[in-house]
Amino acid sequence: MCSSLSGCINHFFADDLAGIMAGQLGINSSSQCLDLEKRIKVFLDNLDYYSCLSDHPINFNKTEAMFSARAIGHPKFVINFRQDTMDIIEWTSEYKYLGYIISPKLGWGKFLKYMMTKIRQRISLIKSFIIFGCSSSYLHKTLFLSHVLPIFTWIYPIYPLLSENQQNDLSHFYYTSLRRVLHCLNWNENFFAFALDEKSLEDRCHSYWGKYLAALADSIDGELLFEKANLNVFRQIWIDKQFSIKCLRTSKRFIPHHLIIEKIVGWMAPIPYRSSVPVYEIDEIQLLEDFPESFDSI
């Protein structure tokens, strides 16, 4: 695949393919579009040839193109697979790839909004689910784990990369969704997590990344990432002028470079390994039962 579709960065999973082409620096927008049109034509010719050799037909109806630049609007040229056919690729402002929404706008706000809307719809269906005129909390929780929690798993890979406000909002949204399903909205989140022994979204993401790093430790990819992290450390020491390299000079335009895996490990460090849910003593629970008016909100 990589040798057949050279000239771009391609991501291939099962029967889904996403190709990324980077523009040139220092030229105007019209020249960028002319160069992009030539490169797209070469890419589509190679893709058509590869599909014939590998016997993987191309779904022309689902093929879309997205353009991202400071210039407003889409390029004016038309993209088609073959000159003698009318299989035209439409320009779009966003597309879905492996469940994630990709758009020219940086950030995960659009994807998170789409995910939260989908979760609210499923929670409404769960709350309306009744068998023989009644339903139980056990059934509602089972439906939550079967139909709502899998949507939350889409957040696990990107959760450490989100801002602190986004993480807090998602953690609150997770507990609120679960409390709404179990009809416990009058409970405080901390007390709800303690009473029902429910893991937080942060704990679930921490467990996911812990398993991923354990699998990565014994792989070649893990060794390459570790080598890249060491290179970043030496690069930063060189930029800070703690040691010098002959024939190389530092520049003020150099910026620190951090691997994504470094950010994730830094996020995991302060989180408890077992659980971040607070543990209350039995005396504190008894005190709450005897004097509920002494507590602000439980």
Task: Give the structure's gist in a few sentences.
This protein has ten helices and seven strands. The chain has 298 residues and is mainly α.
Plain-language structure description:
This is Reverse transcriptase domain-containing protein. It comes from Rotaria socialis. The chain is mainly alpha-helical. Among the domains are: 9-102, no CATH class; 208-268, no CATH class. 47% of the residues lie in helices and 8% in strands. It has 10 helices and 7 strands. It has helices spanning 29-54, 109-127, 137-147, 149-152, 164-181, 189-196, 201-217, 220-239, 260-268, 282-290, and strands at 9-13, 16-20, 64-65, 79-80, 88-91, 95-97, 100-102. It has a 3-stranded mixed sheet, with helices on one face. A hairpin with a 2-residue loop joins β6 and β7 (100-102). The longest helix has 26 residues, at 29-54. The radius of gyration is 26 Å and the shape is globular. It starts with 8 loop residues before the first strand and ends in an 8-residue tail after the last helix.
Note the gap between the termini.
57 Å
What structural category arises from helix and sheet content? Answer: mainly alpha
Low-confidence stretches: none
Percent range of helical residues: 40-55%
Binned strand content: 5-15%
The number of E-state strands comes to: 7
Q: What is the spatial order of strands in the main beta sheet? A: 3-5-4
Looking at the structure, what is the overall shape? globular
Helical region count? 10
- In N-to-C order, the SSE pattern is EEHEEEEEHHHHHHHHH
Radius of gyration, in angstroms, nearest whole number: 26 Å
Main sheet record: 3 strands, mixed
Question: What is the residue-mean pLDDT, rounded to a whole number?
Answer: 79
